[in-house]
Amino acid sequence: MSNKVKKVVVAYSGGLDTSVIIQWLLEAYPGCEVIAFAADVGQKEELDGLEQKAIKTGASKCTIEDLREEFARDFVFPMLRANAIYEGTYLMGTSIARPLIAKKQIEIAHREKADAVCHGATGKGNDQVRFELTYMALDPDIRIIAAWRDDKWTFTSREDMINFAAKHNIPLPVSKDKPYSSDRNSLHISHEGGILEDPWNEPTEDIFTISVSPEKAPDKPTYVEIDFEKGNPVAVDGKKMSPATLLDHLNTVAGANGIGRVDMVENRFVGMKSRGVYETPGGTVLWAAHRAVETITMDREVMFMRDGLIPKYAQLVYNGFWYSPEMKALQQFIDATQEKVTGTARLKLYKGNCIVVGRKSPNSLYSEDIASFEKSGGYEQKDATGFIRLNALRLRIAAYLRKKGK
After folding, report:
1. Residue 127 catalytic?
2. Model pTM?
3. Per-residue CA distances from 397 to 18, 256, 386, 405 (Å)
4. Domain 7-70+96-178 superfamily per CATH
């Protein structure tokens, strides 16, 4: 492959890595045109001044695409329908954003007739895999510049990049005194690096951005009601909202009640363990609410099958296989299980706790007459005798054999 790069589209966030990458590309690949692409997936104020910064540091242009509704509707909500959660804890806010960003990056590369795409994910992390699997799935011929794995990349630490930025007058969102790495979108914000690299260190309160500490949350609980249609949240407290608006609203309400903080050590796809601190207030509430509506609308055996696939679904998202054939097939099954998941969940938010206190649905499979201890309701309790004896048959046979010494 020729070393010559004529035009490259960079996934640009304005964070530490991508802040220095534009200047680095200009030096490492002389004569190439660098186009910065920033995906608006709900970073809020982090996008302020981003276009000017990219151009000032050498980009020929900076394209910012508003992907907030697409992100919530076509990526977050399908994952929510699966109740996906990685290693029992992580709601995968970073993981699910990468395939959308990479998809749009490829689209812009085609539009700009670029011959390469570039990302700033490190060679130790998951994002390099997520970006590049998407690139290859959507355009197998595109040239990929993975800066951290490039022979021309001479940086070995964050401090090296901070010094490079200072030399070239590139403004940074981090400093040597506070070298945290944060990644924000509509679903969550993640924090890594600095004191967090020691898993024994408790994160300091200044790290958190979109949630108050449970100790400082209101002394009075907040109640919310969330309406679902076929597994998708559509309204809060009776008010219809677009996917992105609904997610933003719940982030505000839940964050004010200290909901959604997670501190975990996870298993990265590349093989190492990593400590991350996450804030996912709205997503935490939606996950609990969705499960609550499912409990009264999903058939027991269908739920059992779907729940058995949650770890696999989460693994595919986390590892970057969003555009794989197995994910497509799995999503079709998940969506089939959601046909009757329509209803409302009521939750109490109080000092970091998200408590389901009510659920209802026009498709409810719950029968008060049958379940009640006070009524017979068409259920013959004597029928349980034969049911139990049949299920115990193999256990009884094994017990008889043990008694006979076999």
Report:
1. yes
2. 0.93
3. 67, 58, 16, 13
4. HUPs (3.40.50.620)
